[in-house]
Amino acid sequence: MVTTLLLYLTTVIQLKDGYKISLALLFLIAGVFEYVLSLYAPNQFKDNWWLIVVVLFMAFEIILLIVTNTISKKIK
Question: What is the pLDDT of residues 58-68, one digit of tens each?
Answer without folding.
Answer: 899 999 889 98
